[in-house]
Amino acid sequence: MSAEICKKLVEALKKRGFEAEYAATREDAVTLALAEAVDAKSVGWGGSETVKELGLREAMADAGKEIRDHQLEMDLFLLSANAVTLDGRIVNIDGRGNRVAASIAGPKRVVYLIGRNKIVDGGIDAAIDRIKRFACAPNCRRLGKRTPCAETGVCADCDSPDRICKVTAVFDRKPTGVSAKVIVVDADLGY
Ligand code: SF4
User: Fold this and answer.
1) How would residue 185 be classed by pLDDT, with cut points 50, 70 and 90?
2) Exposed / middle / buried, residue 129 (Cβ in 10 Å: 0-12, 13-18, 19+)
3) Hey, where are the domains in the chain?
4) Pocket of ligand 1 from Cβ distances under 6 Å
């Protein structure tokens, strides 16, 4: 069932201008990401739990890649999405906006790795609802932020100085001039 949904998303992303591929397992996702890095000298990512869970930082370092943190210029930028609608719209919410910035300009190649748990069968509102409940709250707890969601698990659209959701980016189509691929992984990854 989840394979069917992931493959449906792959087709939807292609219609929106992204290259897209299905990975049946985490291992397949790592293989596809490493294949993307063959010609890359430098690789970076945007603080992604998905990338961490896949062990991609270590895999890229082992492959001799120069690791670039907090920079916009690199050959390959790996990231995930906080949510993606089944009809292919990617949604990311940042505090600083650095991940979103790098997914639009700077890196020569952008590769998303998106686990099946990020897929929502609804519109942008459903995507944002998913992010607030299942990404922001656990992230606030993990980072020790003093926000309402860290305490209750529910978003209060807070004014806290610790608020981590300040920039919301919706990708209706692949941005012009960006070379981007999405690997949809049939596994739960990140949050
Ligand atoms: S606006 Fe505040 S309460 Fe809502 S998810 Fe973001 S940090 Fe949490």
Assistant:
1) very high
2) middle
3) 2-185
4) 132, 136, 140, 147-149, 155-158, 160, 163-165
